[in-house]
Every structure is written in C-alpha cells, then in structure tokens.
Amino acid sequence: MPTRRVIGRRVLVRDVVALLAAGRSVLLVGPAGVGKTALIETIEWPHDFVVDPFERITRAAAARIRRGMNRGNAYLAAARSPARSELGCVGRIAWRMTLAYVRPLPSRAVRTILTDALFASGVPPTAFDAGWLRAAVRASSGLPGRALALSLVVGERWRHDGYLLPVQSALVRSLTDVCQLDRQDPKSTN
Questions:
Q1: Cα–Cα distance between 130 and 171 in angstroms, integer?
Q2: Considering its fold, how many domains does the chain have in total?
Q3: 144: closest CA among 114, 100, 120?
Q4: SS3 label, residue 77
Q5: 35 or 4, higher pLDDT
Q6: Residue 49, in any domain of the structure
Q7: Cα 183 off chain centre by
Q8: Claim to verify: residue 122 and residue 138 sit in the same structural domain
C-alpha cells in the first residue's frame, strides 16, 4: 500500500504492490537517481524484507535473504543493474526475483517535481522563467533524484544569496555534493 505521493509512478507502484502481495520478491532496476529508493519508501513493506542497495551485499546477508526466500518471504530490493557480474554474491538469488524496471520520468513529471521542490526550498515562482525551468528539466534527464538535488542546491543559494543559480552550475554543484557524500558515508549494507 502506498504511503506517500509519488509522481508519475502510480502504475509501477500498483504492480509492485500486487507482486509483493502475491508473495513474489521484486527487484527494482534502474540508473542512479531514477527513484528506486523513493519507490521503496512509498511502498509499505516490512523493513526486514527490504534490501537497498541490493548490489554487493555481504555473503552472510545474501545467505539470509536466500533462506528467507526459501521460507516464502517476499523481498523488495533495488539495484542499478540486474547483471550478475554487477550484483556480486547476491546475483545467485536475483534470478528468483521479478524485475521491475524503473524508467526515467517524462518531462511533465520532472517539471512538477522541480517546481514543488523549488517552492518548498523557498524559491518564489517569480524567481525563474520558463526557459530556466526547461533547461532544468533537460538537465535532470528524467531522473527525479537529479531534479531534487538540483532544486536543493538552487534553493540553498536562493536563501543564502537571494539569486537564482544557473542550471548548469547547479547541476555540477549537486553532482559534486552527491560524490562527496558517497565518499564520506559509503553505505554498508546488512
């Protein structure tokens, strides 16, 4: 059951919820920033049966998941690729999961995410024009995570200095921030 609003993903959420309810494990697959984690947070599923990220988890965690699947537990997981070579030791159980590809969003949905996030960050609607917004939607490439990161950087600059950061500068800054976070706090899974 969905617990929060997701833009442009109603059908996917409905299908994943139906698969989980039927006892099928689901592996959400898509590029970084496409919204796999947001979908997982949207779907009410016991935390013990959620694996995000699914790639490169420990052998012990993979064995625990395999045992759980053997007992009939359905897991919800996310990975950038279903390729066994990219999944590491967990690739041995990925074939037991139904793949659900999370595709980039259409421009209209990304525009909604951007404007909502900009308003929430304190950027007034009069601060940006249609050209700036089009450039931001293009720079987001259909990836809601990238759109949110971009809007956070723009909102921070707006609150601090009172001016709108150019889209390309905001994009570079947001990507740099993400890389620094990855280096500071690598996710250790299960």
A1: 18
A2: 2
A3: 114
A4: strand
A5: 35
A6: yes
A7: 19
A8: yes
Going by C-beta distance under 8 Å and a sequence separation of 6 or more, which residues neighbour residue 74?
19, 20, 23, 24, 25, 26, 49
Could you report the per-residue pLDDT of 82-92, keeping only the tens digit for each? 887 787 777 77
Work out the angle at residue 24's Cα, subtended by the Cα atoms of residues 7 and 72, and round it to the nearest 5 degrees.
140
Give φ, ψ of 77 to 5 degrees.
Answer: -135, 165
Q: Do 116 and 87 share a structural domain?
A: no
Q: pLDDT tier at 5 (50, 70, 90 boundaries)?
A: low
Token reading at 115: 């404007």
For 23-71, the pLDDT digits (tens) are 999 999 999 999 999 999 999 898 889 998 888 788 888 899 999 999 9
**Domain hosting residue 142, numbered range:** 107-183
Tokens of 176: 């740099």
Output the DSSP codes for 102-133. -PPPPHHHHHHHHHHHHHHTT--GGGS-HHHH
Residue 69 lies in a domain: yes
Same domain, yes or no, for 79 and 64?
yes
Last residue of a domain, one of 65, 80, 101: 101
| Helices 130-140 + 167-184 axis angle, to 10 | 40
Q: pTM score, two decimals? A: 0.81
74 shares a domain with 19: yes
Q: Is 6 helix (H, G, I), strand (E, B) or coil?
A: coil
Would you say residue 189 lies in a domain? no
